[in-house]
């Protein structure tokens, strides 16, 4: 019995580029990409704040916080590319300007005057919890669309942000 050949790809431009046919509707892909754009903006904003605090932390906890913040901003830096690439895989442009990130992010920008060390920790706890809320808010849409790759990405990000918030919060206990 001969195998059926796949249906020809639909084209979406005059150049003949095939349209995206991955089993997720255009509407759902757009909504997921929009949610991931918010996650990307939150992640990048938190990255900048964490890097800022790494540079500007002072006081008796300098060595430990300086090293901890470096590990955290490195992890955040490594997270932005997979988020942006998932947006691209869904057929949408990833935001990449400060103006776009400022408009999309749910997080406050870093203070212009560096706060005291433990205030930095509090701000980062709030930031990681904020990113976790942004990621979690996407799950119902991702589940409805059967978008397992995005669900996997969200699960990974939630694990990191919830664990980092816990570790930072532990520094604030007396």
Automatic annotation (TrEMBL):
GO terms for molecular function: ferric iron binding; oxidoreductase activity, acting on metal ions. Coiled coil: none annotated. It holds the Pfam family Ferritin. Gene3D superfamilies: 1.20.1260.10. Signal peptide: none annotated. PROSITE patterns: DPS_2. Residues 35-173 form the Ferritin/DPS domain. InterPro entries: DPS_DNA-bd, DPS_DNA-bd_CS, Ferritin-like, Ferritin-like_SF, Ferritin_DPS_dom. PANTHER family: DNA PROTECTION DURING STARVATION PROTEIN (PTHR42932:SF3), GENERAL STRESS PROTEIN 20U (PTHR42932). Belongs to the Dps family. This is DNA starvation/stationary phase protection protein. It comes from Roseateles aquatilis.
